[in-house]
């Protein structure tokens, strides 16, 4: 099943995820000592740093992806590449000069 791409640019999603990313970073830098003290308590708090890394990765990844889309930069798709078979060099054959 082929998916179709729309020409609309995700301005709203870019702003949303950019704001959430900035708020997340601001909160962690502003309350870093308190958050670190909770994470150091052990038990279920020990999963806090891992959850934080996943959350930051997701938010920043969504923001960056949407930003590239708004700027019009995209990856080259495999089906869009042109293969050049006509200019391919012939294979070398070994020759015995005896």
Short account of what is shown:
It is built from three helices and no strands.
Please provide a written account of the structure:
By secondary structure, this protein is mainly alpha-helical. It has a domain at 11-73. Helices cover 53% and strands 0% of the residues. The protein has three helices and no strands. The longest helix has 24 residues, at 48-71.
Distance between the termini: 59 Å
Work out the strand percent. under 5%
SSE ordering? HHH
Basic shape: elongated
Estimated radius of gyration: 25 Å
Q: How much helicity do the residues have?
A: 40-55%
Low-confidence stretches: none
Number of helices: 3
Number of strands: 0
- Class from secondary-structure proportions: mainly alpha
> What's the rounded overall pLDDT mean?
86
Major β-sheet annotation = none
Give a topology summary.
Elements: H1 11-30, H2 32-39, H3 48-71
Summary keywords:
98 residues, mainly alpha, 3 helices, 0% strand, elongated
